[in-house]
Input
Amino acid sequence: MRDQLAARSDLLAQLTSHLTGTEVAGLRRRPYCRALPPPVVAVVGGRGTGKTHAFARLRQDCAPVTPTAYLDCADEALRTGAAESPRSRSLVTEALRILGAGFTASGPARSGTLHTTRLFAGLVAIASGTWNADEDERIAAELRRLEPVSPARGDGAVRDGVATLTAAYAEAPGRPRATGSHVELSVEVLLRRLLTRAGRRAADWYGAYPGAQGSARSGLVLLGRHFLLGGDQRRRAEYFLGQALRADLEEAYRTTGGWLLRTGRPLMLLDNAHDELGEQLVRDCLTHRGTGHQDRVVVYAAFRHEDPQVLRGARRLPSLTSAVGLARERTDGLCRNPLVVIPYPPLPPAGPETSDGLLSHVDPDAMLPPGLPRALHRFTGGRPLAMTRMTAAIEELRSQGPPLGSPAPSPLAGLTLRALLDHRGTAPGPPAPTVAESLREELAPGEAGELLTLLSPAADVRAAALLLPAAAAMTTTELRAALDADGWPRCEEHFVADHCLRTLLLHRLWHREPDHASWIGAHESLTTHYASNHPASWQQYQHELANGRTRNAVAYLTGSLDRADTAAWLEDLLRIASAPLFTGLPERRGTAFTGGHRDLGRRVERLLHVAWLAQDRLELPESRLETASHGALHALRDDVADGSVLTDAAGLWAESIRSGRPLRECGCTRRGPANGGSPA
Output
C-alpha cells in the first residue's frame, strides 16, 4: 500500500513540477506550463481516497522551494473565528488570512519574505468597522491575528499600531462611536502612519475598487463599509479582497530579482473544497481570470464528487497519469484549460502477485497470515484512509509482541480482520476507540453517521424508510444526498453502496447494545417486510440469515432446486449468502467444510455456507475454501436442471476465492471513476 500511495503521490508531484516550474520531491520536470494563468486543478475522489494525504505531502515538498499555502475549507476553526466577530469577519476573510500567512511563511530562504500588504490593508479596513477608541485590547488582539500577513512584524509593531490608532480615535472631533464610524479614520492612519512608502504604493491598488475613482483611500473605505453592509455588498468586498492577495503574489514576481529568486509559481492547496467556502474561492479565482487577469498561482482543489456547479464546463481527464502526459507536451495543452478535473479513486485492486508486499513495511518478519494483506485490501476497497488506519493498528500490535527470537507467539501470527477492527490503541489516557469505531467516525461522521448505522442493512430507500426512527433529524432523501455529497457510489442493491463503509456501519450496529437489540430488530423488520411479497423473495431469507437462522433459506433453495433456470437459482443462493453476520463463525465453517452428505437439504445447506464464507469480506482467502466450493457445487450437479451451470461455477468460484474477487458482482464492486472506483 505504501508503494502504491507513493507512486500516486509521485505522479501528483510530477504534475505540480510541470505547473509550478520548480523542483518538487527532488526533481524538476520539463517543460513547465508557460501559459498564464495556469489551470485550476480539481482533484475529485470520495472520502478516504487519499486527497488530504497527497496535499499534505505536496505542502511538505513544495513549501521549501516555492510559496505554498494550504487551507482545509471544512476546518471548524474557520467558522469559530468568523463567529467571534460576525460583523467584521467571514469565512472568506478567515480563509484569506490563513492562505496569506501560508504564502508569507514558505518559499526558498534566499528569496526573503513575501509581503501581503494589500491583503493586510484590506483586512484592517474591514476589521476597523467595529472598533472603538476605548477598545485597545481588542484592537491589539486583532492586529496580532493579522501579524502573519502584516508588512511589519513583532510585538513592537503591534504596540505602535494600537497606540497610533487609539490616539487617532481619541483625537477625532466628537469621538464618533457609531458602528463603522472608524473605517475612514483607520484607513487614514494606515496610509499615512502605519505603512511604509513601499506599502503605500502597494495599497494604491485599491484605487481600482468600484467607485474609488483611482483613490486608494476611497477604495479601502468602500471595502470596509461594503463588508459591514452584508449581502451582495459584502460579497463584492470579499471578492476584491481575494484579488488583493493575488496582486500581492504577482508583485513578488514582478521585478527581475523577484522572478529569479522565486523560481517556482505559488501553489494554493484547497482541501475539502466541496464545502461552500471552497467552491466560492474556486469560483472567485475562475471569475477573476475570466475577465482577462493572468495571475500565476497554481490552484489545487480537492472535491468529493465531480458534479458541483463550479466544476461545470471543466476539461475532464480520465486519470492522473493522463494529466501528467499532457503536461509533458510542449504545446501547453493542459495549461490552456481554465479548469481541469482529475479523478482520485481508491487504489487499484491488489492481485496475488502484489498483495503480499502491501504490508511488508509493518511486517518485515512476515509474521502475518499469508492471506491478510490481500483480505485487507479487499475489505477497504483500496481506500488509503482505511488502509492507513488498519496498517497503523498492525504496527502497534507488532510493537507489543515479544522480541524476535522469543519462543512466545507473535500477536500477528493469528491475526484476523475481525480482531483488527476490534483493536483499541494503548495510548495513556481514557480508553481509545476501536479501529472500527474511529474509522466509522472518519468516513461517516456526526449524526448522519449514526442514522446511517441504523439504515445499513437496507437495500433501497423504501427499506431504509422502514428502519429510520420517527424522530430522526434527517430523512432518507437527505441521508442519500449526504452519501452522494461525500462521493460514495450508488448501488441498486444497497442503500450504503460501499463495502468498507457498510461493513463498518454494520459492525457498529451489531455492537450498539450488548444484546444486539438494534441489529436483531432491524433484520426482523426487513424479514417481515419482504415476507409479505408473493412469491417469496430471497431478501426475506437473507435477513433471516443475518439473524443466524438458516432453516427457511435452505428449505426455499432446496424446494426450488429443480427450477428450469439453474443460473437464476444460483444467483438467488449468492444473494441470500451475502448476508452480514458477526457471530457463529465456527459453526458456519464447520458446515462449509463438512461434505459427503446424502441428504439433499444438507448438501444445499453446505453450498449456502460455502458461499456465505466466500462472500464475507472479513474472512481471509484460503485454499480449503476453494476445495470446499468445488466439492459443494459438484455434489448438486445431478439435482439441478442444468448441471453445467454448477460445473462452470466451480471453476469461477475457485478463481474468485483465490484472487479475492467477489463471487457475484453488484454496483458496489462495479465501480468506475465517476463513483469512486478505479478506472477500467
Q: What stands out?
A: The CA atoms of residues 158 and 430 lie 41 Å apart.
